[in-house]
Structure formats: C-alpha cells, structure tokens
Amino acid sequence: MTLNPGHMSVSHWRAIQTGEHLTLTGESRAAIAASAATVAAIVQRDDAVYGINTGFGLLASTRIDRADLATLQRNLVLSHAAGVGDPLPAPIIRLILGLKIVSLAHGASGIRPETIDALIALLTHDILPVIPAQGSVGASGDLAPLAHMTCCLLGIGDAIVHDVRKPAATALAEAGLAPLTLGPKEGLALLNGTQVSTAIALTALFAAQDLCQSALITGALSTDAARGSDAPFDPRIHALRGHPGQIEVAATLRRLIANSEIRDSHRIGDPRVQDPYCLRCQPQVMGAVFDLLAQVERTLTIEANGVTDNPLVFAAEGEVISGGNFHAEPVAFAADLLALALAETGSIAERRIAMLVDPAHSGLPAFLTPKPGLNSGYMIAHVTAAALTAENRMMAHPASIDSIPTSANQEDHVSMATHGARRSLQMTENLAAILGIEYLVACQALDCLAPLQTSAPLRAAHALLRREIPPLTDDRLLAPDIDHARHLVASGALRAIAKAN
C-alpha cells in the first residue's frame, strides 16, 4: 500500500492491521528529508529548542551539550519504557506501527528518512515489538507504550515474529536489519503521539461496527420469534423524525422480516396492540447507535491521519514550535461514545432475551425447553447475558473525565484515552457474547414455532447457527454452544447477511 498521509480511510487501516505492506511516496520522502534538515540546522546553530537539545517535561529548561544529543534520545526511550500488563495483540501492534509511519510521513516531526524506513521494515518483516498494554494516560502522547515500540528499533526488549517471542536484537539480525541509532529529536518524535490509543480505539470501532450489524440480525430473529409486528418499521414513521441511522435501521429490519410466514400468520386477529420497546424501538435505539459509530469513525479517521507529536517542525519556515497535539482528548471522547453505543446495544439485546425466555411475554415454553421443570433450558444463559450487560454498563462510565496530573504537575491535564480505548475493546468481547446468546435463544424460539417459517434472510441466519449447534431438547453443557454462537457473531458472518438483504 502506498501511503497518502491525510487521506487514509478506515478500509486502509483494516488492511494494515491484517498485514498489508507499506511504501512511501516521493513527496512524503521529500517532506521528511526537509524536516530532518531543519533539525540538523538547529543543531548546527546550537539554538536551544525543546526536544532537540533540552531535557523533557519539567526538565525542559535543562540544556544538553551537542556531544550528548544521541545519548539524550536513547535515555528518553529507555526511561519511558515503563509499561506493565499483558502485551497488546499483533493486529493492534501492526496498526500502531502503521499509524506512527503515517504521522511521521507528513514531514513535520524532524526524523530522518532512514528512521521511518526502519519502522516500515518492522511491518515488512512482521517484526512486532512487544508493547505492554498499560502505562499511558493519553498525554503527552502514549509515551510508555511507544517507548517499548521504539526499543525494538534499537535492538532492545522483545519482539514477536510469526507468533514466536524473541529478543528484538535477534529478530532484527535474522531479518538482516541493524539496530537504529537515534538522531536529534527522533526519540521524542517516536514516543510522542496518540498512535496506541488510536490503534486500540480503531480496533474497538471495527469490532463494534461488525457487532452492531449482527445485532440487527439477532434483533430481527427475536422480533419474528416473538411474533412481533413490523409496523413500527414503517418508513413513514422514521421519515417524520429524520435521523439517518434510524431510517436505515428501520429499512434493514423491514427487509429482514419481509415475507415471513410467522409474521403473516399474525397480521389478522393478533390481540396485541403494541410490542415491548425492545422490539418496537429498535430503529430508534440502533439508529442512534449507528449515528454514534459514524461520529466515532469520523473522529478517529481524522486523528489517524494527523500529526500528534511535539514539538512540530515547519521546514518551509525553518521553525520548530511546541504545542499540544499529543493530547488525545478527541480519542478519549470517541472511546467514551463507543462505550455508550456498545452498552446500549447489549442492553436492548438482553431485554429481548429476557422476553423470549419468559412464557408470560413470549407465549412460548418456559426458557424455551420442551420439558420445563425437568430441564432449565436457557434460564442461566439469560443470567450470563444479564451479567455481561451489567458489566458493560459499569464500564461505560466516561474515561475522559478522569484526568490525573503527571510529570510534577507540568503535564497537569491528561485524556485517559488509552484506558478508555482498552475498556471499549473489552466491551466488544462482552457484547459478542450477549448477541451470541440472543442468537441461540431466538433460533430456539423459531424452532418452537415450526412448521411456520421465518423470512429467507432469517432462515439463512438460522441455518448458519444450526450447522454447528443443534436445537436444545434436553439440557446439555451450554458454554460450548454460547462460545460457538459468540464466534459466529464476532466473525462478521451475520453482518454479511444484514448487508446482503
């Protein structure tokens, strides 16, 4: 993939995450070289400029001798590699590298061409630095995790190569690469930035987009299984309100339920006047969710294409200016919005599960088992969904409002974006399990209505599940069923059905 800084789309980032190789344009290389020349000129003049020949943070007023500039950058990396926790997974590491490369490719960071080439080489050879997940407060940038990334360039720490963990120096040597010696400002340029929080937030967004599309399928399955009405999906209702997500979700639900024998069998003589909100208000709730996801995508796309280190080099004017682009507040807000969308999607799905297993509301056998009492059916599967829903609600508390001062109060307001993004990623795993349980329950409820058939797309979704999981007759170990269903939901297979119909 030829990088075009400032114009990278979500599809580009998905491709990088799955192993796409990268190359730079000649225009980017010229901008990088001009930026590096500006830094070199400052060093030659011996001007005092933050990050080039001064200390960092509260130590910015400390002047560093020219002979110590390489040691300054190396010490910065080593001292900041203070992360803890489990390593980030390989797809997120690839995305971090790609995001950092795109940021540096703008030519506003003062690094040399060979330094950005060293980053590209890590992706080309699939040498993935081991980066602990915890230790960033989202300003000034994702310092600790990006320091671990940079350590790999120096041949320090560990790397993962084709799923094998080994010393970074060994990984570089096996690929024919030499450890990097950092030039003036390069350590700071590599450490400063929002690439870790953005990479995690983008990964959570990708999962959320897939899951929320799957939620339209599981919601439609539940609606038909409950013999619900499709009247609330009438386009005239939604046109009067005007929200684009609501209009689109209603149209999708109409298509998914169209020509269902179950729905047609209840058009005449059904005593119910209105369905419960968990069925009737799906366009309003999920429409708002999709509108929120669109906003998150806009924010993260801008962030992923931007330059977020400090100070910034303006080669045309020969200036280096300190600012605050490393502050990840946009990412923190995006992660918090994502958390709200994930929590609400799980919340309304849990209500549909509860409705289907309750004979007073569904008109179906208790807990959807043919022999209730002797068997408990999906009783505790619903409890699991309720537990995960409660957990997601707890985690949906905003991370962005929880600032904490650091660096002797020099860095006195931070974003907590990395924490917020990690939290949202965990919430996607919970949501996948909730929707997997709804998928199981709704398909079991449809089986209870045989010989009546649901619509063609919902029959396809039902058949997809039944290829792996038989109907529940007598009680059996449910955890494997839930895991299979969760995997189907998370795989994007249901999203494909929603998109095709």
From TrEMBL:
It comes from the Bacteria. Pathway: Amino-acid degradation; L-histidine degradation into L-glutamate; N-formimidoyl-L-glutamate from L-histidine: step 1/3. Keywords: Cytoplasm, Histidine metabolism, Lyase. Contains an active site 4-methylidene-imidazol-5-one (MIO), which is formed autocatalytically by cyclization and dehydration of residues Ala-Ser-Gly. It is found in: Cytoplasm. One of its GO terms (cellular component) is cytoplasm. One of its GO terms (biological process) is L-histidine catabolic process. It catalyses: L-histidine = trans-urocanate + NH4(+). The keyword Transport does not apply. The modification 2,3-didehydroalanine (Ser) is found at residue 140. There is a cross-link at residues 139-141 (5-imidazolinone (Ala-Gly)). Its EC number is 4.3.1.3. Belongs to the PAL/histidase family. This is Histidine ammonia-lyase.
